[in-house]
Amino acid sequence: MVSKQLFAYVNWRLQQIKGNQKPFGGLSILAVGDFFQLPPLGRAKPLCVYEDHVLDFWKDNFQMITLTQIMRQRDDLTYAELLNRLRVKQKHEKLTDADKCMLEAVIRSSPEECPVDALHIYATNKEVDNHNTEAISSRFSDIINIDAHDYKKDPRTGEMKRQAAPFKGDKRDLIDTLQIAIGARVMLTRNIDVEDGLVNGTFGQVAKITAQTQGGVPVVQLIGLHLDNLTAGQKHRNKAPDGDDSIVYIERSEEPLKKKGTVRRQFPMKLAFACTIHKVQGMTTDCAVVSLKHIFEPGMAYVALSRTTSLSGLHITDFDEKKIFCDPEISASLENMPKADFHNVQPILHIVQDPKMSSALKIIHHNTEGLECHVEDLKCHHELLLADVLCLTETHLSGSAVPAYLQLDGYTMYKRNRHASYTNYVHLANKNGGGVAIYVKNNFQVSPVMYIQNVTDLEYLVLKIEAPKQALIVVIYRPPSYNLAEFLANLNALLTSLEIIDFKPVIVCGDFNEDQLSHRNKPILNLFEDKGYTQLISTGTTENNTLLDPVFISGTQSNVRAGVLQTYYSYHDPVYCVLE
């Protein structure tokens, strides 16, 4: 239901906020929905349908992902499969005999055959209003009519003066006169508190009506609701005047009318024994009565028929199979829309799930750009904590103690901070940032190689993994300001010492601030290759598509997988190496 005009506004607003001209300000956008449901209001075409001379921010920016797990009708898969067929039915197509037979089982010849308390769903507001008026009149005797309080500026005094009777408002204004009764079904028509779940379309039942006498006349002050969604309105429940936290009290809202200079105060709700199809999109209910009488656009019938959790809860009146149809332009557009490729997504997760890889050694390196800032992000990452060995650079830690909140369950942490890494370069030692760390799973037998003779002035850690797999793990961080010639000399000393340790294979990872994708000379890569190492990463590891985070492995290894993972919180993406 999002129009291209609104989508363009979202793009421009994000560009304005982020201060750049990238699509959507450079943010990643996850657009969730179903184009086969209701189109944008008016005559606007859906986002996926390309139009000449209309601003389009969809075609070149989005790829399609088809979700396959059914939630609403998961306990009635036969019904779910029927709905999937109705969803893509063209207007000229006829229902199969089997599908028609299923629907005929829930077709009702008259309203009297339908459950009275079920939500009734219609195509038009007129049908909804008629049903709601009839429902409250026939079921309740203690009906209260609540007129809107309309205020208009008095030209003589300049003060806002309440009118004797409400004006005739527009259909989008707060309602002129609200008819309610204790027990009546209602729906909120405004966003009252989005964070608290009190949003336009929230359903409930009137539980209490609070009035005060003003000028000898009782005036309704609050309407208390039992909401269908028990988690909504938590903040408002705590403010209940009578202490009953099962009731959410709603006050009058104030907003200008379309009439110039007029302000209306009215309760932001309306009767909801029945609703339009547009209002129930996204809703789930156990039981509903659906009329197909005045369906007027593609997708309406499908949306209405798919609200219930099972076929047994659906009751259809005014059935006409010609009313069930989709927009053929959507079918064609989705057929041509590029599909998202997940071939290389979550590789560590796939490896963990492969029985043949149960004994593989999984090593991940990530430049965290501040461990304290991102430790919670790290803990929530879907793949980082699948690593047996998790190497980190730019930890930005100080002090010898490791705070409890930096510990990872099931891991032992080893670290070397920047200030402890330099002997001869005071300007680097005193600079904030830097530092390296390694987390190793507790079931691994590990010997840290903390000090190596003749190796100084490097931010590095060396761990000897002795069981259940064998490997020498090295993590290194080179600051951009570190003189390259001096760094190479110290790196050469380290690599020479690793040869003397003679514990294979050796895996060296880190951030060397040398772009391996650059066409320029790469002296750090050259040194590793001269020492017999192979560089495993072949794609960019940063937002700028530079490869600053290589992984080197000693000798020639055939059973190695390596690549780049994804993260949302760092300029650097993690890289991984798996030894089979």
Automatic annotation (TrEMBL):
Residues 178-207 form the DNA helicase Pif1-like 2B domain. InterPro entries: DNA_helicase_pif1-like_DEAD, Endo/exonu/phosph_ase_sf, Endo/exonuclease/phosphatase, P-loop_NTPase, Pif1-like_2B_dom, PIF1_helicase. It is an enzyme of class 5 (isomerase). One of its GO terms (biological process) is DNA repair. Transmembrane segments: none annotated. Keywords: ATP-binding, DNA damage, DNA recombination, DNA repair, DNA-binding, Endonuclease, Helicase, Hydrolase, Isomerase, Nuclease, Nucleotide-binding. SUPFAM superfamilies: DNase I-like (SSF56219), P-loop containing nucleoside triphosphate hydrolases (SSF52540). Pfam families: Exo_endo_phos, PIF1, Pif1_2B_dom. The keyword Coiled coil does not apply. Its EC number is 5.6.2.3. It comes from the Eukaryota. One of its GO terms (molecular function) is ATP hydrolysis activity. Residues 1-76 form the DNA helicase Pif1-like DEAD-box helicase domain. Its cofactor is Mg(2+). Residues 387-531 form the Endonuclease/exonuclease/phosphatase domain. It catalyses: ATP + H2O = ADP + phosphate + H(+). Belongs to the helicase family. PANTHER family: ATP-DEPENDENT DNA HELICASE (PTHR47642:SF5). This is ATP-dependent DNA helicase.
